[in-house]
Amino acid sequence: MTSDGQPPTTTGGRLPVASAAAVRAAAVRLVRADARAFACLLVLNTAAAGAGLLAPWLLGRVVDTVVAGGGTAGVDRLAAAIAGCALAQTLLTRYARLVGHRFGERTSARIRERFVTRALALPVSAVERAGTGDLAARGTSDVPAVSGVLRDIAPDVLIAALQAAFVVVAVVLLSPPLGALGLVCLLGVPLAARWYLRRAPAAYLAQGETHSALAETIAATAAGARTVEALGLRERRAAATEAVAAEWRRTRERTLLLRSVLFPAVDVSYVLPVVAVLLAGGALVRHGSVTLGAVVACALYLRQLSAPLDAILQRLESLQGARASFARVEGLAAAPSAPPPGGPVPDGDRIEVSGVRHGYGDGPDVLHGVRLSVRPGERLALVGPSGAGKSTLGRLLVGADRPREGTVTVGGVPVADLDPERLRRHVVLVSQEHHVFADSVRDNLLLAEEDASDAELLAALDAVGADWVAELPDGLGTRLGAGGLAVDGAAAQQLALARVVLADPHTVVLDEATALLDPLSARHTERALAAVLRGRAVVAIAHRLHTAHDADRVAVLDDGRITELGTHDALVAAGGPYAALWRTWHGADSTAALPHAAAPPPRRSPSGNNGPARSGDAPDGVTPGTAD
Ligand SMILES: Nc1ncnc2c1ncn2[C@@H]1O[C@H](COP(=O)(O)OP(=O)(O)OP(=O)(O)O)[C@@H](O)[C@H]1O
Q: Of 99, 113, 158, 383, which has the maximum CB count within 10 A?
């Protein structure tokens, strides 16, 4: 956690963590959002604490009445009042707790909703840099931790804090010298708590880590039992496990030591003020400066303090943990977010890449001053060895990343400045990763165009050849994914392509869309792709050279630079690097790959012919390769 006023912290590419000041400001906003319930909570708690205060004071009056020789009738009345106060306190506390839990529930719902909204607004690049694990951990453990504390712990702590504050005020009002003495003697509690809290987080963290390490070592040994036996590693694994177990024991002993210091110190600190007040009170009574009843009431008040203080102490660790979790949850507010709706409107469909340098994280540039134009409606193939920067350039073209230097614009506007809604009307990436949401077919498609009618959805599905939808029991309303109809890779890809049809971008960046599919699925997908690509500009990131052969132009990327650009025929005739690639592929056997390329190029075209695909094999000629 940062201290006050510090900016949010980030570690490497990780998502930011909110500063202490930001956490406080967020907490105040949350309270304001449900101000009435919070005010009601305070009033009820105050009333409950007030009722609780009356009992010791009345008991003091009983003592004074008895000392003064008052009758039993007066004592009975006081006793009845004490019982009434106890009942009122119980009822008010119960109701305050109910209101508190409801407030906590509503507030945690707000936190969850805001987290989801912010997470969805994160640019893909920010999530990728941070690692999806970080975001997932914030969503699955930090948000529930904050919610749990808000619902179950915070109301109890608020009640206890108010009770403790009221008791302290009452003691001081009743007898300032005795109150001051009691509070001084009570100082041991905050001192012991401070000592403990300074050491506890690191100690418990270490205990958690060694526990995970022990679990991991045991699980790894169990999983690799055969290997352990085959290689005679038993002794070595046992020694490794013992070493981790010893470390775990050491960290547990450390936390045990902390607790064994805290609890006795706190217990003594609770008793000390009572003893001191009784001793000093006796002297003051003899002196006549205070009544015996006031001394008894003071002692009872101080004794009463142990309950709320204990309640707070026991929950301090959870509160600290929740505060850290809240800082991580709120950290998303400081993370970069996708551009808000509205903003600049592109003037035209031309995509221009100029002087682009880009790299990942703090690493070196992987693109070095790339300059390229994608003309409306053209088919441009990006080829080059593995690691040349093709996918990186593709990500910049679809606005997934913003270049370190230079610009990538569509119609004169940087693509990274377009809000997601507008961006997908211009340029869309089609890759091998397709996600089907656990929702209806309709909702899976409306993501691309929320105002689309059922007729438009069916037309888009028809365009990509998703005939299977017609046979679904509930048609567009059929639920897909977890808890619904299982969807295979080809159907998922058709849904993704139908979304592209609905978004209707003028440019599609195609990243090896069929490379991982089996031949039958790939053939289906190619037909669907051909329908989707018709009439749009296509930038095909090509591992297979027949894609380049059929394109209008080919850009050769090598080590982050465009080394050649032109038509296939012109580049082959030029005899440069592309011609060499082409000869290697064209003359290679079925296992040959592009030099240094990750995937081997197929020798058979989608139509089954050897050699590059004929442009007639797929409309528009941009033909993703098949996995033979
Ligand atoms: N997320 C990332 N983090 C760090 N470096 C990356 C990341 N993605 C790519 N790179 C690096 O950037 C360089 C270009 O990679 P890129 O994936 O763009 O090349 P490519 O031409 O598409 O390669 P391939 O054909 O193998 O997909 C490579 O050196 C790669 O290691």
A: 383
Specify the pLDDT at position 564.
93
Q: From the CB of 598, is ligand 1 less than 6 Å away?
A: yes
User: Residue 566 — left, alpha, or beta (φ > 0 → left; ψ -120 to 50 → alpha)?
Assistant: left
- Please check whether residues 462 and 317 belong to one and the same domain: no
Q: Is the CB of 384 under 6 A from ligand 1?
A: yes
String of DSSP letters for 309-332: HHHHHHHHHHHHHHHHHHHHHHHG
User: Does 131 have pLDDT greater than 70?
Assistant: no
Give the DSSP letter string of 106-173.
HHHHHHHHHHHHHHHHS-HHHHHHH-HHHHHHIIIIIHHHHHHIIIIIHHHHHHHHHHHHHHHHHHHH
Percent of the chain with pLDDT over 90: 23
Residue nearest to atom 3 of ligand 1 (CA): 360
Q: For ligand 1, is residue 601 a contact (CB within 6 Å)?
A: no
**Is the C-beta atom of 602 inside 6 A of ligand 1?**
no
Residue 300 sits in the same domain as residue 376: no
Residue 366, classed as helix, strand or coil, is: strand
* Residue pLDDT, tens place only, 341-355: 777 888 888 999 999
Domain membership flag for residue 270:
no
Centre of ligand 1 to C-alpha 392, Å, is 6
395 pocket-lining for ligand 1 (C-beta < 6 Å): no
Question: Does the pTM exceed 0.90?
Answer: no
Query: Are residues 416 and 294 part of one domain?
Result: no
What CATH number has the domain bearing residue 127?
Answer: 1.20.1560.10
How large is the ipTM?
A: 0.97
Q: Please indicate whether residue 360, judged by its CB atom, sits closer than 6 Å to ligand 1.
A: yes
The whole domain housing 54 covers: 20-175+290-334
**What ligand 1 atom has the least distance to the C-alpha of 129?**
1
- The verdict on 419 and 303 lying in the same domain is no
**Average pLDDT over every residue of 36-54:** 86
Same domain as 317, residue 368: no
